[in-house]
Design goal:
about 140 residues, about 0% strand, disordered C terminus
């Protein structure tokens, strides 16, 4: 089966309104096509695996997602507090998080404030559909 996409479909979704926060990136590309402006699904799987590590604080991530919907100022405070605690207690994991985020969002800068777009909602969605790790896809599908 083949199909055609309009040029608009290839535009990155993460061009957000600067007054709102997005917790999903929308469209991901399969494979390793370096020229695609879209984030890669493999990087999202890697972020999911990192966020599922026992050393990661899951409560603050859930709280951040909730605050992104209601209060940018509180979300920024939560983001800053989470980053500070991770830097103090889990600096290597935070470094990995920042590397993955930079691949997903080329404009991501860990030294800046909370980005307007984060793929955290996408990670939660993957978890909700019982995709715990990428290697589970073939096992669950019986392949």
């Amino acid at each position: 089966v083949t199909g055609a996409l309009s040029p608009d479909a290839l535009e990155p979704i993460h061009q957000s309104d600067p007054t709102t926060l997005d917790h999903t990136m929308g469209t991901y590309v399969l494979g390793t096509e370096p020229a695609s402006p879209l984030p890669k699904l493999g990087d999202l799987f890697e972020l999911q695996a990192l966020l599922q590590q026992p050393a990661m604080a899951h409560g603050p991530i859930r709280q951040l997602l909730n605050l992104m919907e209601s209060s940018r100022a509180q979300a920024q405070q939560s983001w800053s507090r989470w980053r500070k605690l991770m830097q103090e207690n889990q600096s290597e994991i935070l470094k990995n998080f920042d590397q993955i985020m930079t691949r997903l969002l080329p404009q991501y800068n860990p030294l800046n404030n909370l980005p307007y777009t984060l793929p955290l909602g996408d990670v939660v969605t993957l978890h909700a559909v019982n995709n715990l790790l990428p290697e589970n896809i073939s096992r669950e599908a019986g392949v």
